[in-house]
Amino acid sequence: MQFKRTMITFLGLATAALAQAQGTWPTKPVTLVVPFAAGGPTDVVARTLAASMSQSLGQTVVVENKLGAGGNVAANHVAKSPADGYTFFIHHNGMATSTALYRKLQYDAMKDFEYVSQAVEVPMTLLARKDFPANNFNELVTYVKANKEKINLATAGLGAVSQLCGMMFQRALGVQLTEVPFQGTGPAMNALLGGQVDVMCDQTTQTVPQIKAGNVKLYGVTTKSRVKVLPQAPTLHEQGLKDFEVVVWHGVYAPKGTPKAIVDRMNMAVRAALKDPAVVKRMDDLGAEIVEDRTNTPEALQAHLKAEIDKWGPVIRAGGKFAD
Fold first, then answer.
1. How many CB atoms lie within 10 A of CB 175?
2. How far is it, in rounded angstroms, from Cα 162 to Cα 55?
3. Nearest of 216, 211, 255 to residue 129 by alpha carbon
4. CA proximity to 188, closest of 34, 33, 41, 286
């Protein structure tokens, strides 16, 4: 009898959750947690998507910036949040790289989340402050090799894609620069604009306006092919760094146990946003590539995360940069 009552209770709760997801969810604002500072590239993607998703969901999608530990503070917060459909998480490659960068994590990237959707992929750019001596990529290589002890490399912190891009650049040139970590590429970009740091890698979602305004020096993009928003910018690959490729991808997650019906509806909201003409134009302007329909399913995001963990683990371990 006890087992029967337990099963009846469980089925009742499950049915109620399904009904809520299909019928009334959401009944209040939904929070989309961003692990980096406001104004940074992930924040720009999140806020652009949130504005469109608010329309399709009929409730405001509130962006909350929760900084710290390369995205791990936010990831742990979401992993421990109620699985009621009102807390979601958007993160980039750092969701995969943290598993190798940090010896101790309070969450499991593969086990503690429901997968909602991939969203956009963003190229990186290699930049320097406006008054940096090198005027093109060949001059940059020569100058960096001759002055490596004096050059500061800004990053968004341990595990950020800007740091991984910087690691690959240093390895390609056989140098070690002084890394200056910030809590997000927003603050890092401010430091570059202010001349406090010398060089950095950053996403086109943040750098295109500064490049077009002439506020920074651009040396190349990190994709294998040139990007349409910066057609004049050669790739690092074509300039001699063979097979140099770093692309930032963003995924949306929910706490483990979030009802499938809610995850599916949120997936539909992300998909709808990615087809919204205003979102498409904004992403085009910033150089971001909207993912294909076949890759923005929960299953595709889960498979991609696993593949990225397998890809970046050996690179990070070879670099020897770890945190507790």
1. 17
2. 32
3. 216
4. 41
* Cβ–Cβ under 8 Å, residues 282 and 258: no
Cβ-contact 252, 46 below 8 angstroms:
no
CATH 3.40.190.150 residue window(s) in the chain: 2-121+249-319
Q: Which CATH class is domain 123-221?
A: alpha beta
User: Is the four-CA dihedral 151, 225, 100, 267 of positive or negative sign?
Assistant: positive
Contact call for residues 219 and 126 (beta carbons, < 8 A): yes
Decide: 126 and 201 in contact? Cβ < 8 Å: yes
Q: CA-CA distances (angstroms) from residue 312 to 95, 156, 209? A: 11, 17, 30
Find, among 40, 93, 36, 96, the residue nearest to 68 by Cα: 36
| Single pTM value for the model | 0.79
Hey, is 196 helix, strand or coil?
A: coil
How many Å apart are CA 229 and CA 16, to the nearest integer? Answer: 47
Structure tokens at 183: 């809590």
Please give the angle made by the CA atoms of 74, 286 and 180, to the nearest 5 degrees. 50
| 96: its two tokens | 């995969």
Q: What digits encode the pLDDT tens for the residues 209-240? A: 999 999 999 999 999 899 989 999 999 999 99
CATH of domain 2-121+249-319: 3.40.190.150
